[in-house]
Amino acid sequence: MLMVMDLTDGLPKELIPRLEISELSTRGKYELATAVFPLGKRVAAEVETEVKPSETARGEKCSPFRNARINMTDQVKNLLQIEKLIASIPEPAPPKEEKKKNHRT
Predict the structure, then answer these.
(1) pTM of the entire structure?
(2) Most buried among 3, 26, 70, 77, using CB within 10 Å?
(3) Pairing status of strand 32-38 against strand 18-19
(4) pLDDT tens-digit profile of 52-95?
(5) CA dihedral 77, 64, 20, 86 (to 10 degrees)
(6) Sheet holding 32-38, edge to edge
(7) Burial class of residue 27 (count of CB atoms within 10 Å of its CB; 0-12, 13-18, 19+)
(8) In whole angstroms, how large is the CA radius of gyration of the chain?
């Protein structure tokens, strides 16, 4: 199928497929796609700071979701690199629990 469109206002979002991270490797590296990246326990603002330099002219980042995910649209090759980048950011260690002191009376 061939579609002719005026892209002066950008590519309509409904034409960009939304893929699971596991599906990215099955697509062409220059295809546009949207993927949702789980952040785990990483701080969304820190991830955003690390990912921002990786954004391309064609890419579009949505704000981080409250439930520790970030939604990005870009070429598949860039989304795969962003996946690796997010995975390389260490998650903060859980807070240490203080041991209860054993008091003898």
Answers:
(1) 0.73
(2) 70
(3) parallel
(4) 777 765 666 665 556 678 888 889 999 999 999 999 988 888 77
(5) 50
(6) 18-19, 32-38, 69-75, 60-61
(7) middle
(8) 19
Q: In this structure, which amino acid lies at residue 48?
A: E
d(CA 104, CA 50): 51
| HEC-encoded secondary structure of 51-67 | HHHHCCCCCEECCCECC
Query: Any bridge partners for residue 13, and if so which?
Result: none
**Amino acid identity, residue 15?**
L
Structure tokens at 58: 């064609």
* Tokens, residue 92: 């903060």
**pLDDT (tens digit per residue) in 25-35:** 999 999 999 99
